[in-house]
Amino acid sequence: MVSAIETVSIPTGAAAERYRTAERTLWSSHGLEPVERWIELSNPRMRMRVMEIGSGNPVLLVPGTGGTGPYWAPLVRELQGRRCVMIDRPGWGLSSPIDYTADAYRSLVVRILSGVLDELELDRVDIVGASIGAIWALRLAQAAPPRVGRVVLIGGSPNREVEIPAFIRLLRSPIGALLVRIPMKAGMLRKQLVALGHGAALDRGAMEDFIAWRLAFQRNTDSMRHERDMVKAITGPKGFKAGVTFEDGELREMDRPTLMVFGTADPTGTADIWRRFIAGLPHGELRLIDDAGHIPWWDAPSEVAGHVDQFLGRPA
Q1: pLDDT range class, residue 5, cuts 50, 70, 90
Q2: Looking at the predicted structure, is the pLDDT value of residue 174 above 80?
Q3: CB 124 within 8 A of CB 67
Q4: 64 in a structural domain
Q5: Separation CA 36–CA 44 (nearest Å)
Q6: Which CATH number fits the domain that encloses residue 91?
Q7: What is the pLDDT of residues 113-159, one digit of tens each?
Q8: Separation of alpha carbons 154 and 133, rounded Å
Q9: Which of 282, 316, 315, 297 is nearest to 77 (CA)?
Q10: Which residues, in sequence order, are bridge partners of residue 148?
């Protein structure tokens, strides 16, 4: 329970401290001072790091590939009057890894998120998921609707109509085993961000603090190695394995109000694909952010936060 959170051992050493320094620098550049907390989950057994900012109605934020705690900074800065709870997914940031082959993905992610809520003594939350974190958010809403108020999905995510992104295909390939061990260079990261639709933000210098943090993330944690393990577990030669993406019948049964925010420069699907996806939900809405990329709150933080804040402000 909450009283036991601070007793969990935390990562130490030079690499962990370098990463924490980079995190603090990014948070500080946005005027934020999160609280770091630790919880121990039993099923699956792992140590998870949680970052919290603010007070008020709780919002659980689940990141996608390429991000964890600090990459939410431009969004949570704008979400006033809310308790933003940001997890490091298993193996990400400073959370310990798990074996993703041990159980079905859909049930595994539900147990993880339910365990987080139990340990934090949160009976019910709104939930925001980005990229593959959107799958986590929807699976929790599907399996445990009483624990979820409203759902926000940001950026494209695994979908039956969407091909596995090129970077994810590369990550699961034999080349990926080398890629995750090579220290990332700034130029390589910039090319990745351009491919994800963030060229305009880069041109105006809006992601320099993100780049500095993301390089430290890749160099000082084993996150990408663990993410490769997850990618290999949930994908096959022809696409995502069963239980990762949603069938039409599952979408029709989803009773939680759901908002999707999609940047028109995001290469993960198209606006038409996501219109069809949202149309399959009984209570779904779509908001498009012109010229924004895969993590659109870095391109248009006020616009994205405005949609999220307005949506979460309504009674569920």
Answers
A1: very low
A2: yes
A3: no
A4: yes
A5: 21
A6: 3.40.50.1820
A7: 999 999 999 999 999 999 999 999 999 999 999 999 999 999 999 99
A8: 9
A9: 297
A10: 125
DSSP alpha helix (H) spans, 62-158: 73-76, 105-119, 132-143
Counting the structural domains of the chain, the total is 1
3-state secondary structure of 261: strand
- How does pLDDT run across 220-246, given as a tens digit for each residue? 999 989 999 999 999 988 888 888 999
Q: How many Å apart are CA 99 and CA 250, to the nearest integer? A: 26
Residue 1 belongs to some domain of the structure: no
Q: How far apart are CA 278 and CA 280, in angstroms?
A: 5
Please tell me the distance from the alpha carbon of residue 207 to that of residue 262, in angstroms, as a whole number: 19
Partners of 50 in the beta sheet?
37, 87
115, part of any domain? yes
Provide φ and ψ at 234, rounded to 5°: -110, 0
Cβ count near 151 (within 10 Å): 27
- Which structure tokens are listed for 68? 């964890």
Using an 8 Å Cβ cutoff, are 132 and 227 in contact?
no
